[in-house]
Design a protein that fits this description.
Layout (H helix, E strand, L loop, with lengths): L2 H13 L4 H13 L1 H39 L13 H33 L9 E3 L2 E2 L2 H13 L12 E11 L3 E4 L7 E7 L5 E10 L4 E6 L13 E2 L9 E6 L6 E9 L9 E5 L10 E4 L3 E10 L5 E6 H14 L18 H8 L3 E8 L1
Parallel strand pairs: 8-13
Antiparallel strand pairs: 1-13, 2-3, 3-4, 3-15, 4-7, 5-6, 5-15, 6-7, 9-10, 9-12, 10-11, 11-14, 12-13, 13-14
Helix pairs in contact: 1-3, 2-3, 3-4
Length: about 375
């Protein structure tokens, strides 16, 4: 199939112009052809960017019209220009003509560059945005109010300045958790909070900055180890277009999102990570990425700043390597990563109910 035909099909698909049979055939093609799937993602992003551009142009035009109306009504006055300021007057007179010409040129340039360069996989490193959350004073106040309302005593010392937040999840039922290493950057103390609002003091066992993985251990007398984990950790390659979902803490309660695997590698072809099309926000870093069987396939850690819904996750096979390396260095480290999932075949709602108790918010107190 020629590139032009694919572009026409993608456009009809996104506009909803395909009949049910054509739509089903195209979705099958999308699942089996990574290039077609990536084209859909890129074209969808392009249309969103064009819509944003149009909104900005309309907003500026409305501002100008409002200013012009106020001038005509005598509500505001023009500034008396000094000699030599004629160019400003000319700009005011012909700005709308220039704006129309610039709009046409801008749209043309945006279309060409968008289809050729913006969607290039070789995005610059600065385009990568880590997803750890900066905790505002309002959020701190909200957390205190919730804690008081629920009669839950926080373990964080009065006056401690909680600066950043993220997500972690249980690796081993004896209190070992895994998260993204960048979430813990500059940490003096680290606490984790369960879905029911209880805080636990943790210890940073080890960090691998290159793989962006960190191991935490809950060292708190109030923590009670749970039973067997409902989910397992997958070493297998995840297929393109396979549905995935995440749980994390972009705000002061657990949040669910779903999407699909859109590329086997991360930014600039990074083989240690994969690309997911999903909504993610600061605070989701360190959260698990599950496949349809309730198996962890990765740790969500970053998103592409210039693209909507383009998110990256460290592959779960790196967690296995990370733990094996730690065990070789410390023979007393007793961590067992479960490979099988008891959630296979269960519907999504049932999976989430069983998984969420093992997901924890990370609270970082800086040194």
């Amino acid at each position: 199939m020629e590139q032009l035909q694919i572009a026409e099909l993608v456009e009809k698909y996104l506009k909803g112009d395909l009949n049910p049979e054509e739509k089903e055939q195209f979705e099958t093609l999308r699942k089996t052809n990574p290039e077609v799937d990536q084209t859909v993602v890129e074209y969808h992003f392009f249309l969103e960017e064009m819509e944003r551009y149009g909104q900005v142009r309309r907003f500026k035009s409305n501002l100008y019209d409002t200013h012009h109306t106020l001038q005509e009504n005598g509500d505001i006055k023009d500034l008396h220009l000094k000699a030599g300021a004629k160019i400003i007057n000319l700009w005011g007179k012909y700005r709308r003509v220039v704006a129309v010409a610039a709009s046409i040129a801008g749209i043309t340039a945006l279309f060409i560059s968008g289809m050729i360069s913006i969607f290039s996989p070789n995005a610059p490193i600065r385009d990568l945005e880590e997803l750890r959350r900066k905790v505002s004073n309002l959020e701190k106040q909200s957390t205190r109010q919730i804690s008081e309302f629920n009669k839950i005593k926080t373990k964080i010392e009065p006056g401690a300045d909680v600066k950043f937040g993220g997500t972690s999840f249980i690796l081993d039922i004896n209190g070992y958790l895994v998260t993204s290493a960048h979430v813990l950057k500059g940490a003096k103390k680290v606490y984790v909070q369960s879905v029911d609002g209880k805080d636990f003091l943790t210890e940073i066992i080890h960090e691998d900055l290159e793989a962006d993985i960190a191991l935490l251990k809950i060292n708190d007398a109030d923590f009670t180890p749970g039973t067997a984990l409902p989910y397992g950790f997958s070493k297998k390659r995840t297929d393109l277009s396979e549905p995935v979902y995440t749980l994390g803490f972009p705000k002061d309660e657990i949040v669910y999102n779903e999407g699909y695997l859109s590329a086997q590698t991360g930014l600039e072809g990074d083989t240690m990570s994969c690309q997911i099309t999903i909504n993610a926000n600061p605070g989701n870093s360190g959260g698990p990425v599950f496949n349809k069987n309730g198996e962890v396939i990765g740790i969500l850690n970053a998103r592409q700043a210039s693209a909507n819904g383009v998110v990256f996750a460290t592959k779960s096979k790196n967690i296995f390597r990370f733990i094996e390396t730690l065990k070789e260095a410390d023979k007393d480290l007793n961590i067992r990563m479960k490979s099988s999932s008891s959630l296979k075949g269960a519907n999504r709602s049932s999976q989430v109910k069983k998984v969420q108790d093992h997901i924890y918010m990370v609270k970082v107190v800086l040194g």
